[in-house]
Amino acid sequence: MKAAISSASSALNSTTTSSLSMNRWLIVLGTIIVQMGLGTIYTWSLFNQPLSDRFGWDVSSVAITFSITSFALAFATLFAGRLQERWGLRRLIRVAGVVLGLGLILSSQVSSLTLLYLLAGFVVGFADGTAYITSLSNLIKWFPERKGLISGISVGAFGTGSLLFKYVNSALISAVGPAEAFMYWGMIVLVLVVAGSFLIREAVVREQSPVNAKEGAVSEPAEVHQQYTVKEMLRTKEAYMLFGIFFTACMSGLYLIGIVKDIGVQLAGLNVATAANAVAMVAIFNTAGRIILGALSDKVGRMKVIAGALLVTAVAVMTLSLVPLNFGIFFACVAVIAFCFGGNITVFPAIVADYFGLKNQSKNYGVIYQGFGFGALAGSFISALLGGFHLTFIVIAVLCAGSLLMALIITPPGTSLRARDSHNKQMQFNPSSRAS
């Protein structure tokens, strides 16, 4: 009888574990769909000139919209964790998808820059950031043993959405004009985000058991010794070091994304059509960097990947600033910077989870993610202050060098204390060590 019960229990556990594994990959699919819809905001540069031509606005004034979008996206991550606790993950993502879609649809009716900044800038960015941080953090919780790879898949889907919609939005702008294109873009994004949310299931972190299939709970890896709250995280020096590194990584990548076409024309002497191809190339290499460096970080260590990416980025921006550019050098530097930027923003969610635990991942990463928002604004402001590309690239290279040093020396909070405790225990239980 006991043997029969044991056999039945084993079969039930096997079936439940298989079901949980299948459910986890359905959650991956749902997150990919959501992230692809969210990533479409990175096609904004396609609208700058057409909107300028239609309404007579200055191109640089229209381009400010994307800076506002990026800042609002980062700002939203400060509140997304609390909203998730109040509403639940699936409901929050659906609401964010509806608000994002409506923000774009209503942007089709604007006739002033102020309304464009409000709707396409703040509203769209806030909704995008809310769904981005919560869906990404949730997926990482479902795969604590593969944080780098899973982060790469999720953030890579964000980049893929940008790449695919470069062609979708280009076709819409050519067919119906920039204003009407907003309406169709908004409807498509609304459907993608809301549809993807139905496949997502919220993870609950448990510290004591590897996997609890009945409760949908996942375990914390053994190396994490404390689940930090936001307040506790902000008491560590590592939080501020990570913010500084992330700020530098984001500024270098976001500044390039905003001006890559102009660099090709003004510094490399390319025609407008050829330089415009760099926009697609940024999306391709950005996505590749997210997947490749995310998976690599699981194997060689996350800070090693960050340090390597910062070093390569510094060399590339110095090349853009100091070396006479041609077609090959220009595209090589752009590809390298985009690849490293994609990898950096992919690995950082996993770093925050490694350093501060999974339980409060959305809130903790939301704080560090403010480096993205400030980085989005800093590049443009520094460029305006210094008067051009060359000096701005030199500043970015210097910041990369400083961040590289921090990446080489930073360790998880309490590492030295735990190492000392471990050494003391060894001394206590090893008489020969004490005698020596």
UniProtKB/TrEMBL annotation:
Q: What is its main location?
A: membrane
- Tell me how this protein sits in the membrane: Multi-pass membrane protein
The answer on whether this UniProt entry bears the keyword Cell inner membrane reads no
Q: Does the keyword Membrane apply?
A: yes
Q: What keywords appear on the UniProt entry?
A: Membrane, Transmembrane, Transmembrane helix, Transport
Q: Where in the cell is it found?
A: Cell membrane
Residue stretches spanning the membrane:
25-47, 59-80, 92-110, 116-136, 148-169, 181-200, 239-260, 272-293, 305-323, 329-353, 365-385, 391-410
Q: Name one Pfam family in it.
A: MFS_1
Q: State the source organism's domain of life.
A: Bacteria
Question: A cellular component term (GO) from this record?
Answer: plasma membrane
Record-linked CDD domains: MFS_OFA_like
Species source reads: Paenibacillus polysaccharolyticus
Q: What is this protein called?
A: MFS transporter, OFA family, oxalate/formate antiporter
GO MF terms held by the record? transmembrane transporter activity
